[in-house]
Automatic annotation (TrEMBL):
This is Transcription factor PRE6-like. It comes from Olea europaea subsp. europaea. GO terms for molecular function: protein dimerization activity. Residues 5-59 form the BHLH domain. Keywords: Growth regulation, Nucleus, Transcription, Transcription regulation. It is found in: Nucleus.
């Protein structure tokens, strides 16, 4: 047994099993549109993780873009209006 493995057991750190990893990758595959649509084709765990990272990056970009658009809309709205209050709540 390697010293690294024995150290992790001594420190109480539990190790994730291959079955758990496969289950998590399968769950990610169901969440990511790019790989979810490939039911009949086998997709590697590496590809699922790659697409997951890309998907999260795209979501961050979309959130940033929407926040910018809301900020611009807020600037052109009467600050005391109900619409401005709604926009401010969306930006929080």
């Amino acid at each position: 047994m390697s010293s690294r493995r024995s150290q992790s057991r001594q420190s109480g750190v539990s190790r994730i099993t291959e079955d758990q990893i496969a289950d998590l990758v399968s769950k990610l595959q169901q969440l990511i549109p790019e790989v979810r649509n490939r039911h009949s084709e086998k997709v590697s765990a590496s590809k699922v993780l790659q697409e997951t990272c890309n998907y999260i990056k795209n979501l961050h970009r979309e959130v940033d873009d929407l926040s910018d658009r809301l900020s611009q809309l807020l600037e052109s709205t009467d600050s005391d209006s109900a619409q401005a209050a709604i926009i401010r709540s969306l930006l929080m």
